Amino acid sequence: MRTGGEILVELLIQYGVTHIFGVPGNQLTPVYKALAKHREAIAHILARHEGGAGLMAEGYAKASGKPGVCLVSPGPGAANAYTAVLEAFTSCTPLLLITVQNNDHEQGYSARRLFHGLDHAEAFASVTKQTIVVSELEALPSAVFEAFHRIRNQTPGPVLIEIKEEILGQSTVGLESPEEDVLSLQSAGSERDEEALERAVALIKAAKRPAILAGKGVGDEEAGDLVTQLAEKIQAPIITTILSKGVVSEFHPHAAGLINSNYGKGIIEQADLLISIAPLYNQVDMRHWQISLPEKSIQIEKDPMELGQVYSSTTAILGGIADILGELLLRLDKSEFTPDPWDVQQLLENKPVYDGQHNDFSAAIIDALNGSAGPELILVNDVHVEGYPLHYDYRVHERYGYIHSPISVGIGYALPAAIGAKFAHPDKKVIVFCGDGGFLLSSPEFSTLMRYRLNIVVVIVNDHAYGTIRRRQERDCWDFTCADLANPDFRRFAGAYRCAAVTVEEVERFAEVLSEAVQREDGPFLIELVKKGGSASA
């Protein structure tokens, strides 16, 4: 006999889950009892706030490509995790949020009258791919299968499972998830559209200035090498999206940066053919829809719902990204194709060191972070005034090397997301790069960082303000600003947790301090980088 809690945990293990991020509640006791029983197979990471737990799970998923799992109590616990689900929805991150529901909810009582009351399905409907309500124990295996199928099928995204509370404590026999269910989670490829492939080959052979836009789907299918092979074959520059930075090494000779960078936009304007691979077009990438695509374009998609979204294409190919790229390469080889397009080497040699204009402070930060970068490092960037330039000028060696909140733009994202990333890659070095405002929003999770003694370097740029907001307010000539902050002494804050810390007053010293901090192996380290000109803290 096994309880519903045991069945749930065993199903998660069966689907490859090794970490769960959460905050316990009394309603979840049967699940935690099962987690204790299976602690060798699945680790529970205790957060200080459900919002932090959700962002840890989301960061774990971004860093690993595997679904992140978050476990929270109903009502306020689930509501606290909403921002993380929103982040997963806009970033197309595979995330599973699990919560429970009051037993009386089905009796017709309004959620507002129930203990921990919230209609989760309705509350999360707009930010999830699916919400699954489990009212009977016998339905639990199929619900978990459906959740993992939906999370990873087509364009990834978040799914919510709500389980009736009494189910978790009920006992039963059987209820195994059939082996074929697990195997069927491997998405089958679509039938090849021979005519579309031939049209695409003809367009590529006729192009003089082809360019490739490698979107997030390239990373989801680990097809970066195929993209670089195609770029080398047809002599095309590769630009990426805000969600796909790093799917192709930014040190590759054909890498040209983000589509919404000044340089990337210039390439789009010059190209006579764009090969757009699972781009997930969005407002950020397309500069509020002001970027126009070349007259001729090829769109390659795994998700049929993305075909023709926002921008139309000359021809579209639906199927597995890796399969289609491999077939295009094969057909170009067989056709004895000899490219005669633009001089990509000369084109990219003209790429400026920085895409934008930076003051000395920002340039020193970018240089220091690039100096510490490598295949073994993950940079998790928050939303702050010194963080935005990194989208364009921090160079990433490989997929998962750069994690951020690009579209929902959630301030306070970096610290919890970095914790998740570190659990996904315990062998890699992780840097949190945030502002003082963002750090304080998620600062309770510094306790989580210390609890697990994670080798993470936390860099706080301290300008005593929500700097991006203050700059906008000052620019618009307001009579006053509402963005100045009263900050703690960050070295003493770290010291209260027995964490080593240093304050850097001169940005010229930042590179040296950061380099030394990244090499440490004795737990977390905090660097306060003072940006002069900010308001004094109270």
TrEMBL record:
The keyword Oxidoreductase does not apply. Residues 197-328 form the Thiamine pyrophosphate enzyme central domain. Residues 392-528 form the Thiamine pyrophosphate enzyme TPP-binding domain. Keywords: Thiamine pyrophosphate. Residues 2-119 form the Thiamine pyrophosphate enzyme N-terminal TPP-binding domain. The keyword Secreted does not apply. InterPro entries: DHS-like_NAD/FAD-binding_dom, THDP-binding, Thiamin_PyroP_enz_cen_dom, Thiamin_PyroP_enz_TPP-bd_dom, TPP-bd_CS, TPP_enz, TPP_enzyme_TPP-bd. Signal peptide: none annotated. Belongs to the TPP enzyme family. This is Thiamine pyrophosphate-binding protein. It comes from Paenibacillus haidiansis. The lineage of its organism: Bacteria, Bacillati, Bacillota, Bacilli, Bacillales.
